Amino acid sequence: MSQWEIWGALSNGATLVLRGENAFEALSTVDALICVPTGLGLLGDPSQYPKLKFVTLAGEPLPTSLKDLWAPVVQLTNCCGPSETTIISHSSLQQVDVNVNVGRPIPNMNCYVLDDKFRPVPIGVVGELFVGGIGVSPGYVNLPDETASKFISDPFSTAYGPMYRSGDFGRILPSGDFEIRGRRDNQVKLRGYRIELDEVAGAIMQHPQVITASALVKDKTKLVGYFSPANINKEELQEFVSARLPIYMVPSVWVGLEVMPQNSNGKIDKKALDALDLEIDFDPLVTKSEKRMASVWAHVMDVDISEIGRCTSFFAVGGDSMTAIKVVAACNAVGLTITTAQLLKFHVLWRAASIVSVPTPDAWPSITLSEEVLGFIRDEWAVRLNLENFVVYPATPLQAGMIYATMKRKHAYIMQVPLLLDPGFDSKSLFEAFRAVVEQHEILRTTFVTTATGIYQIIRNDTVDFFFHNTNESTIEAFLDLDRARGFEIGDKYFVRLTLVNVETDRYAVLSIHHALYDGWTLSMLTNDLVGSLQGKSLMARPSFRGVVDYIDAQNKATTEDFWRSYLSGYVSHPIASTGLTTEDSRPHEPLEMCTQVSLAEIKAAAQRFGVTPAEFNKVAWAVTLQKYTRQSDVVFGQVMANRDIPVKDADGYV
User: What's the rounded Cα separation, in Å, for the pair 616 and 623?
Assistant: First the structure.
């Protein structure tokens, strides 16, 4: 019992009732109660204590469920403060419709939220709490080193003595109230991430059914969330916590207890929790879908399946947008149908496994073109392109956009890959190997034409006009400039070419290809096929891009347009001042230097912490940048999609 509890009662004319063996019996007569939240959680329904009018809590974080249970029927005050500041430094009258906080400093006390260099942080930013004022002790008795490290000269006020470094992390809310987020000495490091255990427990306690909660690390590998009462659904609790914490701070193991162990002060006894004789393991996989899903994750991401449980997050085992596409393809191979978007949204294993029941069509209806379009192409383009056997498909919207840009500027959307050949390398074998790749994959035999109704792609069934070029240049850069200026245009028989370039004693093979024919995945597969062809291997059959075109054509365009018009209704564009340049105005061979202190590894780590992909993390960064320059809370920007995550069989493998 502290001085403020004794004199707070007696100096106000009240009777101080000391707790006996039966605390519940004493509660039937008192008007005011001072205890820790864990103790209050044991009292049950407030209606059992009709005389109780005032409840003051301190010593532990206050769970939201307790606040919502007691605040409507008593005057509920939440206090906090270390012993070094005379027990209490903050207090707050709790309201049902306001999140739990500790309020503002009591009279004659100051509180600062500072960074590691003792500078105030902005409102809403987490820092360490320093307490100053008349209640701060001058130091520890006979402990000069500890006193020097904890009691620091107050640079913000000369009215009192030193300020105390509390070791608590918190922030100032826009209302001016303070919110505690955990303690410095309660931080642990798990899988390379620094985790604040009190913050994890605090997020668990925000659940409306949780009375008490704690978090510990077991076996140096597992973050365990303890909660009471034990009948709360674990999956629901994990989803609740996942919405409030970065994915690396969400427990992978959950333990429900009817009553939390308490120490002599009535607080949660973490040593007793740690000593509980429990078999700490991941929740076992239950359904066939869960077991198949776990097997796929383990195989694709090269992790031990024993590390994957029902509550394991896709991101926690190394998932990102690229591996998501591979996981989706592998799931389809074992009879689990899920889209990339679904996997990224429902990234906890049991949730992902629960939505794999809707089958994906093996194929979408093939496109049927009008005789008018086919006749026009035969009449206008067959002779010019030397076409005999060919197939016509409409260009996808993405392809059409790129081709329209190329019609304005022939160098738009062209990629060049110069390969330096070894002196003894047989260039003829390279050309023949590449011809075999072109013959294997129809996208490389695709050209584009215009009609009155739009852009169409023509797939020719031969390579009779696919020639290789041989030229001499003073430098490879000079050739690349000329080749880029040549570009591609409507009427070209192919939108890909391979050129042998002789530069003095060096030889280069330069691949030039239009972006309408490839994405990043395509290049990887084509490279593997070219190497295999050079080695005399048979080329594997890969899904055709036609399946993607069929899928896009099968979609209801009017419904899609109506959705986006409705979704963006009322949005007013606020463009940044334009320089007059467009995305097609790229200047070849001029390096763009960007100075940044953030490495790719740091971006990946940050993305994993927040349970998003690196691509999504970068989009958020770009959105924040746009928000800063436009000064608008809503920003809109376009994104090119590669159509690898659409519900088309083997979409991850098409060329």
Answer: 10
Residue with tokens 């270390």: 82
Annotated domain spans of the chain: 191-275, 288-353, 371-551
Do 459 and 399 form a contact (C-beta atoms < 8 A)? no
Is 140 exposed, middle or buried, given 0-12, 13-18 or 19+ CB atoms closer than 10 A?
Answer: middle
Nearest CA to 399 out of 322, 452, 458, 350 is that of 458
Please answer whether residues 517 and 495 qualify as being in contact, where contact means their C-beta atoms are separated by less than 8 angstroms: yes
Q: What is the CATH number of domain 191-275?
A: 3.30.300.30
- Average pLDDT of span 463-471: 80
Q: Which of 368-372, 437-441, 595-599 has the lowest mean pLDDT?
A: 595-599
CB atoms within 10 A of CB 431: 18
Given CATH 1.10.1200.10, say whether it is the number of domain 288-353. Answer: yes
Q: Contact 353/309 with Cβ under 8 angstroms?
A: no
How many C-beta atoms lie closer than 10 Å to residue 615's C-beta?
A: 15
Tokens of 384: 């010019």
CB 16 within 8 A of CB 6: yes
Report the distance separating Cα 311 and Cα 239, nearest Å. Answer: 9
371-551: CATH topology is Chloramphenicol Acetyltransferase (3.30.559)
CA atoms within 13 A on the CB side of 566: 6
Gap between the Cα atoms of 94 and 67, Å rounded: 7
Residue for token pair 């987490």: 126
Number of other CB atoms surrounding residue 636 within 10 Å: 12
CB 270 within 8 A of CB 216: yes
Q: Which two tokens stand for residue 473?
A: 């240049």
Cβ-contact 588, 484 below 8 angstroms: yes
| Percent of the chain residues past pLDDT 70, beyond the cut | 93
Burial 480-519 (b: 16+ CB within 10 A, else e): beebbeebbeeebbbbbbbbbbebeeebbbbbbbbbbbbb
In the numeric block, which tokens belong to residue 24?
A: 């519940």
The pairing of strands 32-35 and 54-57 is parallel
Predicted local confidence at residue 243, as pLDDT: 83
344: amino acid identity, one letter? L
Q: What phi and psi values does residue 596 have, to the nearest 5 degrees? A: -145, 150
Work out whether the CA dihedral 44, 45, 47, 51 comes out positive or negative: positive
Handedness of CA 316, 319, 321, 327 (dihedral sign): negative
CA distance 27 to 404: 80
